[in-house]
Every structure is written in C-alpha cells, then in structure tokens.
Amino acid sequence: MRPEILNSGYRFGTKVLFAFIRTVSGQPLPDAAKLVFYRPDFYGTPMKVFTQEAMRGSSAWSVGDRELMAAYVSKINECNFCIGAHTAVAAKAYQDQAKVAAVLSDLETAPIEEPLRVTLRMLGKLTHEHTVNTDDIRAVLAAGVSRKQVEDALAVCFAFNTTTRLADAFDFHVLEPAGFEAGARYLLSRGYR
Questions:
Q1: Cα gap 127→166, rounded to integer Å
Q2: Where along the chain do its domains lie?
Q3: For residue range 141-170, what is the model confidence (pLDDT) as tens digits?
Q4: Using CA atoms, how far apart are residues 70 and 89, in angstroms rounded to an integer?
Q5: What is the distance between the alpha carbons of residues 82 and 51, in angstroms, rounded to a whole number?
Q6: 107 pLDDT exceeds 90?
Q7: Would you state the pLDDT for residue 161?
C-alpha cells in the first residue's frame, strides 16, 4: 500500500530540489529517491552511506558487476522497480545489454566469468532461502573469488534485499524506459549519495 506521504511529505526545500531534478532530467523523481529524503535521519542518510560504499566503494568487483548483483537480487525478489533500475545501470556500466539480459534470463548459460557466476548463485540462494553455509562460501572461494569480494558481494545483497522489500512495501511506481535510462546515467555519474 502506497502511503500518500511519499507524494507530499517533504519540506519546501526538498520539494524545490525535486522540481529542479525533474526539470533537468525531464523525468519524475523515482520513488527510491523520495524514500531516501523522507525521514533521512532514520533511513535515508544511513542507507545512502551504506549503499554508496557497497556499490561504488573500493572493490575488485567492477561497478557493472555490482549493479548486475543488484539486478539479480532484485530479480530473485521479483521487484519490478529495482529490476528495471539496476538492469539499466548494469547494461550502461558494461555497455552490454545482452550480457545483462542473459544473466537475468539464465545464470547458468550466461556469457560471464565463473567467479561472478558462482557469486551470483550464492547471492541468489541467500536471497531466496535466507541462508548460506560453509559449502556455499567454499564454492565461491574455490572459483577464485577473494574473501574481500565475498564481503563486498554480501554488502550489495544486503543493500538490495532491503531496498527491494521497501520498494514493494511502498508500491514504488515502475518507471518508463526513459526514466530508468535517466536514473542509470545519474547513478553512474554520481553514485548513491
């Protein structure tokens, strides 16, 4: 159920910022951004900091890899808003829409390196079953993924398991393709700040 507060519960300065963003981008502000501005002390600021570090902090995973992880977790959670948003960002980061589509269609046959495949497999299991075990982690490490990369992937998984649940709970509007493209350009240039 979408609370009306997401449409109107902002201070004057925030409303001006939203209008400016809409004017510059030509697109409505995504509900994910609106949620960050609503009660920033409770959710917005801490989650922005965490997500920025998970998605754009120092990592052996590329930005495209981490955006693909976000899209994959979103697909497992069947969150249409987040699937659209992070598929667009991953495709733009990789400059390869077909690669992203292939992963989301069939992870096992997608044209990606094995370390990324086994990591996505682990994130899918964690998202779907809410647990992983030592054998799952060993399989990822055996594929050549470092312990730090496992931690980084788990941070992405946490961020987007949280975000997808909020997106569905608050009934985020699914954007038109142009809206997702504008969002992808923004997230690639500015990140999650």
A1: 15
A2: 47-190
A3: 999 999 999 999 999 999 999 999 999 988
A4: 10
A5: 14
A6: yes
A7: 97
Closest CA to 70 of 134, 162, 146, 140: 162
- Of 103, 98, 41, 43, nearest in space to 72 by CA: 103
pLDDT digits (tens, 9 = 90+) for 19-31: 888 888 787 778 8
Q: Alpha-carbon distance 52 to 54, whole Å?
A: 6
Which superfamily, per CATH, for 47-190? AhpD-like (1.20.1290.10)
**Mean pLDDT value across residues 58-80:** 98
Burial call 82-118: b when 16+ CB within 10 Å, e when fewer: bbbbbbbbbbbbbeeeebbeebbeebeebebeebbbb
DSSP string, 95-143: T-HHHHHHHHH-TTTSSS-HHHHHHHHHHHHHHHHS---HHHHHHHHHT
Q: What is the pLDDT of residue 1?
A: 65
Report the candidate in 135, 159, 138 with the shortest Cα–Cα distance to residue 147: 138
The pair phi, psi for residue 27, each rounded to 5°, is -130, 150
